[in-house]
Amino acid sequence: MIQLIRGFRDILPGESERWQAIEDTARAVLSDFGFREIRIPILEATELFTRSIGENTDIVEKEMYTFEDRKGDFVTLRPEATASIVRSYIQHKLYAGDPFHKLFTTGPMFRRERPQKGRYRQFYQISIESLGSESWIIDAQIIQIFYNILQELKLKNLIVQINSIGDSQCRPYYKKLLVSYFKSREQSLCVDCRRRLRENPLRVLDCKEEKCQRIVSQAPQLIDHLCESCHRHFKGVLEFLDEIELPYQLNPYLVRGLDYYTKTVFEIFGENATKTEGEEPSVGNALVAGGRYDNLIKLLGGEDTKATGAAMGMERVIAALKLKGIKSSKSATSPIFLAQLGNLAKRKSLKLLEDFRKAKIQVAESFGRDSLKAQLKMADRVEAQYALILGQQEALDGTIIIRDMKTGKQETVKLEKTVKEMQRRLKK
Ligand code: HAM
To answer: Which of the listed residues 168, 194, 261, 377 has the most CB atoms within 10 Å of its CB?
Structure first.
């Protein structure tokens, strides 16, 4: 028997309703904020990701599904959506006329990480990008949008962690400071961090090893070395969050694992998540993560255009909902169930179902089941208020039985009056 690939999952009926409910909620909030959907391919030229995410990141070094296609071109299953959205924005000159675009996309991403709780090799994101503005208001708004989505999903006590990682003005100087600080303690760092020190020193800041964290806790903080413009920007973001009373925590060690970020970076966690070392959080990883990326559009060949965005991990949000015992509001329910007995009744049922569909009334059925008992069981399962029973006699008489599922009370009506009668009953 051929099994699923490790780190990949099927989303089965029963579970998929929850996915739909989350997507519906996100789409409604995003539409309120004026975001429009963009659909981008799953496969892209490898260079798109090496250039944008960065050569010395975990994603590019270890996690991408990259292969040579039949013509010898290197292609990669997208590990994230931002780079593709930016490519599309440049390629189709979406900026012509109006550089400002609010876009979102949903779908699977691929990273060959070590499979563990909250980490899959195919996982789904809702990724939102606001292109064309350098205003700090937009950074805060992105946080606000995801905060709203998570709250509408009934996740409470969310933790927003936020930091500024500066820009090309202030970061190089800070990097120097940081490298010289870590160099003097290099022997006490873990093997990975010694390598990071040479390749990507900022990443040492979010190492999970206890001995590294001890050293990091005394390290110089970028927030104390921001240039005037980054400082003003960060202050603006925080003031907006204060204004809308959205609680946040400053985390000076939040640096993110992708190279394209500038200025604001943030992550949103569920209630039980902590980033304290030694304490394995129960939901664990970030539900949402993102930040500003002012250089990416230019880096990928576009005009100098500023942008900001974030992505929410579907599997992690679902894990958080399950942990809190929050049920999906969308389940496979139907107000009416149509049961039938015999061939004539089956045939007449098809016409009746079509009449209900035209009247926009949802009716469940189970033509695969013949026994009335089994069909009424299904009616219970979909939480139907009424079961319509079309038996052999009724089919001959041109009538139908309406059964109130709560009281068990039954009434026979003319078949052609069924839709009208049900409309009347459901309105009550
Ligand atoms: P990221 O932090 O790599 O950022 O991923 C964003 C979110 O995707 C995470 O917070 C998490 O919820 C989910 N996620 C990431 N990896 C996995 C995994 N292996 N299994 C399950 N869930 C995962 C980005 O991807 C950026 N593109 C976000 C962004 C958009 N920044 C600006 N615009």
So the answer is: 261
